[in-house]
Amino acid sequence: MNYLLPHKIFQGLFIILLSTYVSLHHKESAMAKISMDKMLCSSQLISAVDAIVNRPTFNRVNWGILITSQDTQKILYIRNAEKYFVPASNTKLLTTAAALQVLGADFQIRTSIYQDGEGIFRVVGRGDPSLKDTQLKSLAQQLRKKGINQIKQLIVDDSYFQGKMVHPSWMWEDLQYYYGAPINSLIINGNSTIVRLFPQTIGKRLRIIWDKPLEAYYWKIENNTVTTEKEKPGFVKVTRDLKGPILKIEGQLATNDKPKITVIAVFDPIEHFTRRLLLSLLRSGVYVNRVFFGSNNKNNLEVAAVKSPELSKLIAEVNTSSNNLFAEALLKTLGSQSKNNNRQDTAKLGLKVLQKNLQKLGVTPQSYKIVDGSGLSHKNLISPEALVQTLQGMTRSPQFKVFRASLPIAGVSGTLKRRFKDTPAMGIVQAKTGTLSGVVTLSGYVKPPHYSPIIFSIMANQTGKRTSLMRKAIDDIVILLTQLKRC
Prior knowledge:
It is built from 11 helices and 20 strands.
């Protein structure tokens, strides 16, 4: 029998480790070479972007692009940058930038209950879009702790915001769902409600379960659905009647299908809020005799109050999740800060405040025309120039860190979580998405590893193409920006 001497054992181990190191080193070198091979001189960017947008499949697409250096504002690529485009949710960049400038990152929205007289109480909303049942419970418990267990008259004051609850140019199809929910002074649970549809035994209608069980007594349901045998294709369509709290449900699910979840916009947000508040009061042992709807600006004695999270968190919800309700509430909040705002349309006042403060950031007033704060309207018109000016202006603002932190991170968070995965853009691009029918946009910041920081806006209108195809093209352009180098 042969034995290896100890020094020969170590020698063998050393040879194995050395060969492993060389192999890994060669792999890393190869990867680095591949990465360097993909690097792009800034002088090559124009032809590289042109090669994407000039593909035959995009012949009828209207492109607007502006790419600049963040530090020097040097234009790296430009195409139709001064022209108007439907921006979709890129509009939220303007809204949140103005809100931060005017209100500050620590601003909070207060919801109050006042005592107007013996047994007379008034709840006053100021458009907190984050208000939920938890906060209503807190209001009720605050009253109970002060020994208030009977309310003769409860006045529901929804007058803080004036004007229409939805913009008249919003598509009627959108008004049915959570992303087109109405915006008023007393918002609760996003002014929406969740309904779940479960398959039953074959031949039976789908079972309807509300997340808030009381909603079942408020809505009229037209259930034209059926449960089918296993593996049969399922489809469900849920629509809300615009004339009343009526849901029309059509379609089918197989017995082994997962439940279908739909989030519906409430029909009457003031009534909806009142219903939720009365329930919270009752559960806390506070009984209400009568309810009235009206306004009274006395604000004599505040007996209960809750506050929203700081504005920094609200705008993170706007930009990261692209929350329309939050964006519209912030626009109206801007309007509520105006002097002489009594009885005037709060959203229109908010747009004036927005324009004034964007101009201070260096945004050309003529470079955009918007009618809402979320981008849901097809009447919004913004140029790539305006978006880049907004992004550039915020880099000089004390609020820049908060603003940038509110944007989705490529491949990591929000509406960009599933985009740019395993690409050079992952983790180094922060940008706001935008999507409507025939519209795909993306604007934001890039921090390339071998080039100075970049600001970009890419807008595609009248696409006539699948959204996924347009997003892929836009993503290809952004990936080019991450590979820029000085040469």
